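Kindly inspect both lines:
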Amino acid sequence: MTLKVRLVADAAVDPTEMVVRRAAEDLLLVLSEDHPDRVESVTREHDDDALWTEALANTRAEPGLQLTRHAVLDSELLMLSGESFFVATHALWAGELEPPESEHGTLVAVPNRSVLFAHPIRDSAAVRMLTPMLELARRFSAAGDGAINANLYWLRGAQQLERIALEETEDQILISPTSEFAQLLRRL
């Protein structure tokens, strides 16, 4: 058994029964025991910062994950995938997938437990990446076990995920013009 941290939709678990930390407005991190044949959540009576730190380190060091690069709209989309229940948790470190880490953060989608999509925000290509990332998140969250959601997130700094509030019309994606994310996109 190895302690790890699992990223899940907050609606998918009862946080009063297990050790959790908030990852974003609608995402939780769950302290888990990774057994060869199952994954179990750690109960609340074992909430301990040292265990949490150990579990994050174990998750981050997990072998068997594959990073692939995909050309999308004259830019690049990164995909981290694997058979593990803990791949999505790597969203916390998605900014490090394409060094150097962008000073503006990283666009992230975590559609299910076994995949994440990331795009470092370096220039205006981030605006063009919103639609394809949203489409991929929808497709991957609808297929198979371990669905999380089809939302997009802005990874800012160390392990700070912020859900990007989007509104869609028939022909465009709208972001609240007063949001910090929209202000960043205008500066790029």
